[in-house]
Amino acid sequence: MGTLIIALVAYGIGMFPVYGWWMGKRIHGEAIMHTGPLQDMVLWAGLEMTKGALAVLIGWATGGWFAASVAALMVVVGSLYPVVPAFRGGGGMAVAAGALFVLSPMLVVAGILIYFVSLLLTRYLEISTSLATVAVMILSGVISAHMYVIIVAVCVGALILYHQPKHRFGRHRARFRGWKNLFRFRR
């Protein structure tokens, strides 16, 4: 019964739009990442990571490894699939990074490095997200010694990959159809 309560609390934390509530704006994570200035993107990512870390810390304090793993999974599910129509979910990457940071900090550091290197090389958010997600799923078996972390990383990674828009991963994969090059760097 305690794990069910932890799962519901983590889901509630995950679906709560912290940035919109904090800044007084009704905006979801994707809009900030695509249109906002750098300060807003950093604030949004920090708040989303804090949301994931808070849920896992609550689970860890009340029920140990198993409850922390359930909380990590449910906070990402809450972020991706909120039940309240007014709360729009984001991509889940920042929440997952915050949740996994509590369970395995080295795994998240490796994922962030892979994300930014691939973003600098490709300049596509979707490619960087996919590469970092798959890399964290694979590296969880190498870096992490705890089975709960491996299970959470694989499940959360699968959810994030599944949640990405379907038209981007259809039969036209090689053409990058529908992908947007959002970052242009000055030389």
UniProtKB/TrEMBL annotation:
<keyword id="KW-1133">Transmembrane helix</keyword>
<dbReference type="GO" id="GO:0016746">
    <property type="term" value="F:acyltransferase activity"/>
</dbReference>
<keyword id="KW-0594">Phospholipid biosynthesis</keyword>
<keyword id="KW-0012">Acyltransferase</keyword>
<feature type="transmembrane region" description="Helical">
    <location>
        <begin position="137"/>
        <end position="162"/>
    </location>
</feature>
<protein>
    <submittedName>
        <fullName>Glycerol-3-phosphate acyltransferase</fullName>
    </submittedName>
</protein>
<keyword id="KW-0808">Transferase</keyword>
<feature type="transmembrane region" description="Helical">
    <location>
        <begin position="42"/>
        <end position="60"/>
    </location>
</feature>
<keyword id="KW-0472">Membrane</keyword>
<keyword id="KW-1208">Phospholipid metabolism</keyword>
<keyword id="KW-0812">Transmembrane</keyword>
<keyword id="KW-0444">Lipid biosynthesis</keyword>
<feature type="transmembrane region" description="Helical">
    <location>
        <begin position="66"/>
        <end position="87"/>
    </location>
</feature>
<feature type="transmembrane region" description="Helical">
    <location>
        <begin position="6"/>
        <end position="22"/>
    </location>
</feature>
<keyword id="KW-1003">Cell membrane</keyword>
<dbReference type="InterPro" id="IPR003811">
    <property type="entry name" value="G3P_acylTferase_PlsY"/>
</dbReference>
<feature type="transmembrane region" description="Helical">
    <location>
        <begin position="94"/>
        <end position="117"/>
    </location>
</feature>
<dbReference type="Pfam" id="PF02660">
    <property type="entry name" value="G3P_acyltransf"/>
</dbReference>
<keyword id="KW-0443">Lipid metabolism</keyword>
